[in-house]
Specification:
With 179 residues, the protein is of the alpha+beta class. It has one domain: Transposase IS200-like (Alpha-Beta Plaits, 2-Layer Sandwich). It has five helices and four strands, in the order E-H-E-E-H-H-E-H-H. Strand 2 and strand 3 form a beta hairpin. Helix 1 runs antiparallel to helix 2. It starts with 14 loop residues before the first strand and ends in a 14-residue tail after the last helix.
């Protein structure tokens, strides 16, 4: 099913987006898969102008608050394509056959040029229009690991910008958002 949410052609618009693994398969359980995402964040930030203000990487989805000067949908589409290829290659090397089976099972039939599908289509973009909405989304993102029972405090989840907010050491330094 395609998302009804769309990116608008507004330069530097800030969005809350969600990237979800097909079938909600718990892919991100190994640091090497997280690292692929973090490296990709860094690449698109340095080379494509993507701004990442807040994030959390969970086992089967990623939440981001992001912006881009021109075409955020294209940048996210390329990012998802690249990370899918890299993660699927890593899963093959790790011989995680059950994950490959599910990635094949959940692949859309019309995607004839690939054997597997990692990401659900779309990213459910929601425009951040006010400070109130921004604060709600940040709280939601940072409390995701707490709600799932993975950590007691948001800043304890390594793959989240909650540590950046608390000025702790982090695997990814986020951009500053002036709102």
């Amino acid at each position: 099913m395609r998302t009804r949410y769309k990116f608008l052609d507004i330069q530097n618009q800030t969005y809350f987006v969600t990237l979800t693994v097909v079938g909600k398969i718990p892919i991100f359980t190994n640091p090497k898969y997280f690292d692929i995402i973090i490296e990709n964040f860094n690449y698109y930030r340095k080379t494509q102008g993507l701004k990442i203000y807040h994030y959390v990487i969970m086992d089967n989805h990623i939440h981001l608050i992001v912006s881009h000067p021109d075409n955020i949908s294209q940048v996210l589409r390329k990012s998802k394509s690249y990370t899918a290829k890299m993660i699927i290659d890593a899963i093959k090397k790790d011989e995680r056959e059950w994950i490959l089976f599910l990635l094949k099972y959940f692949k859309k039939e019309y995607k004839q040029y690939s054997t597997y599908q990692l990401w659900e289509e779309g990213s459910h973009p929601q425009i951040i229009e006010s400070v109130k909405v921004l604060q709600q989304k940040i709280e939601y993102i940072h409390n995701n690991p707490v709600k799932r029972g993975l950590v007691r405090r948001p800043e304890d989840w390594v793959y989240s910008s909650a540590g950046n907010v608390e000025e702790l050491e982090s695997v990814f330094k986020v951009d500053e958002l002036e709102f």
